[in-house]
Specification:
Low-confidence stretches of chain A: none
Low-confidence stretches of chain B: none
Structural class of chain A: mainly alpha
Oligomer: heterodimer
Largest sheet of chain B: none
Shape of chain B: globular
Number of helices of chain B: 7
Shape of chain A: globular
Distance between the termini of chain A: 40 Å
Largest interface: A-B, 20 and 27 residues
Number of strands of chain A: 0
Strand content of chain B: under 5%
Order of helices and strands of chain A: HHHHHHHHHHH
Number of helices of chain A: 11
Strand content of chain A: under 5%
Chain lengths: 313, 219
């Protein structure tokens, strides 16, 4: 019985904690840069404010523009059901594996790009084209990194990969494992639109990617998209931390084990967020034409991860 | 240290040495090249220490110390001085651009795996997982040597190549006899000193260290 409660708990956690995590990263960055920064609860306030606002839609917008916020939110919520945030063999593990998770996230990105093109604004088209360039370069990396992890575990099932890492801790020191995670981390930065690929804090026309696609949205629709973006960020961080350091994940779900799992997840995600805040304070945004070089590095890392874990046993 | 952990750590250290070599292909400034080389040498020292602990071989500690003094401290310091002297900051317009260089590095690594297969199959050493990676470091060093224009970058490429050969020796045989090691070290040191004098000379004669411009010598 308890095991089925895990799924709603995961979704609730993702929905509630994701804006807080984004607020935390923003606050940490502000402090590191010598500013006071907005409080952690600021993203929640923004969401509440947006939900109360009027919706303005371009006359040229088609059904895609209206459907996109729900598609993006829906795919993200399904991913929250499939990713082992709290327990290792999830009840819905049979529904989808790592490949399904990766492509559900890409489906959201795809619809977002379509919605950017749909109203015919210049910025939306520019953002969509940039986003697709980056997604097209990040996707093979993601697939290869997934493959490297799957070869180690003998399965693409996320629960199996986590269970295998738990049973063989020395494996995490193998080069395949380490490089696959470095590649995944770069893909995460590119997919979530963080620095050095995209600056989430500005609406500067020369540099923005993600914000350019959302420019035409307003009111509740914008709130849904922002929320989904926060959740995607949270899920990526949680996925990477649980695949790399699965300790704390409940193997046999009970009330105590789940409480420990929630705590462990919070600690791991916050640690990763602190690391990310430090990184984002250190680096400047890459010129758009150097982004493919960064993604080539991550592709190379993923390729090496596959060769080392596949060719040498 | 358990045998499994030893094997994994040795392979991990070799792959990190390879990655810091590949980092050179990604960067653009000469300072970053020198820093990457120093980092690679430090990781190489780590690899030697891991093998030293794993094989319980005291000679390897001495070798680690020598490599540290020569390649982490001395050579980067001299390189920085030469770089300040010639004043060249960036590697502009390499023969092969960055994404293609990175893709080539990937292909070369696969090639190294293919070439090293028989050696790995024959070897009984617990560190055999790192052999293809060390070979890939040699290839990447060669790639840096042939694909970059600046004479200083080519020196870095040569040093990376040498790191790869030394790493290969450590992984395959847990270190060659000390006298051979000393000979190789003096060779590298002397070659390096001659090259850095050459760079200064090229700079004084041609006002650049872009080796493409040396074609003028033919006429």
């Amino acid at each position: 019985m308890v095991s089925f409660l895990v799924e709603p708990l995961q979704v609730a956690l993702t929905l509630l904690l994701a804006p807080g995590l984004v607020g935390l990263v923003r606050l940490l960055k502000a402090r590191l840069q010598g500013r006071r920064g907005a409080p952690v609860r600021q993203p929640y306030r923004e969401l509440v404010k947006l939900f109360g606002k009027e919706r303005v839609v371009s006359r040229n917008a088609s059904w895609i523009f209206h459907a996109t916020p729900f598609v993006v939110l829906g795919t993200t919520l399904v991913v929250a059901l499939l990713v082992p945030l709290l327990a290792a063999p999830l009840p819905l593990d049979g529904v989808g594996d790592l490949v399904v998770v990766a492509y559900l996230l890409l489906l959201g990105t795809f619809f977002l790009a379509l919605a950017g093109l749909d109203p015919g604004s210049a910025f939306g088209g520019m953002g969509a084209s940039r986003e697709m360039t980056i997604a097209a370069l990040a996707e093979p990396t993601l697939a290869l990194a997934i493959f490297a992890l799957a070869v180690g575990a003998g399965s693409t099932n996320l629960g199996r990969i986590v269970a295998r890492t738990l049973s063989d801790p020395v494996e995490t020191l193998g080069p395949g494992h380490v490089m696959a995670f470095a590649a995944l981390a770069i893909v995460m930065i590119a997919e979530c639109g963080r620095l050095p690929v995209d600056n989430p804090a500005t609406h500067l026309e020369l540099t923005m990617i993600h914000e350019a696609m959302l420019l035409e949205y307003s009111g509740p629709h914008l709130a849904l998209l922002e929320w989904a973006g926060h959740m995607k960020f949270f899920l990526f961080l949680a996925l990477i931390s649980n695949l790399a350091f699965p300790w704390g994940v409940a193997v046999r779900p009970g009330p105590v084990a789940l409480a420990i799992a929630v705590l462990a997840l919070a600690v791991k995600v916050v640690l990763l967020a602190v690391g990310l805040a430090f990184l984002e304070t250190q680096v400047a945004k890459l010129r758009l034409f150097r982004v493919p070089e960064l993604l080539a590095v991550s592709f190379l890392l993923a390729l090496l991860a596959v060769t080392t874990s596949f060719l040498v046993r | 240290m358990s045998a499994d952990l030893y094997t994994r750590l040795a392979t991990l250290a070799s792959s990190l040495v390879l990655l810091s070599g590949i980092a050179i292909l990604w960067r653009h400034s000469l300072q970053a090249y020198i820093a990457s080389f120093a980092r690679q040498s430090l990781l190489f020292v780590m690899a030697i220490l891991i093998v030293a602990v794993g094989e319980k071989d005291p000679r390897l500690y001495g070798m680690a110390l020598m490599v540290f003094a020569l390649k982490v401290v001395f050579i980067p310091r001299v390189l920085r001085r030469v770089q300040r002297h010639v004043g060249a900051e960036m590697e502009i317009h390499p023969y092969v651009n960055t994404p293609v260089s990175l893709a080539l590095a990937g292909v070369l690594t696969l090639l190294a795996y293919a070439v090293a297969q028989p050696v790995v199959a024959l070897s009984e050493a617990p560190t055999r997982g790192g052999i293809p990676l060390a070979l890939a470091v040699v290839f990447v060093g060669l790639l840096i040597l042939v694909s970059r224009r600046s004479a200083l970058t080519q020196i870095v490429g040569f040093l990376v190549l040498e790191n790869g050969i030394a790493l290969l020796a450590v992984l395959v045989t847990s270190g060659v006899p000390l006298i051979v090691e000393l000979g190789v070290f003096l060779d590298v040191l002397l070659g390096f000193l001659v090259m850095q004098v050459f760079v200064s000379r090229i700079r004084e004669t041609f006002d650049t260290i872009d080796v493409d411009r040396l074609r003028g010598l033919r006429h």
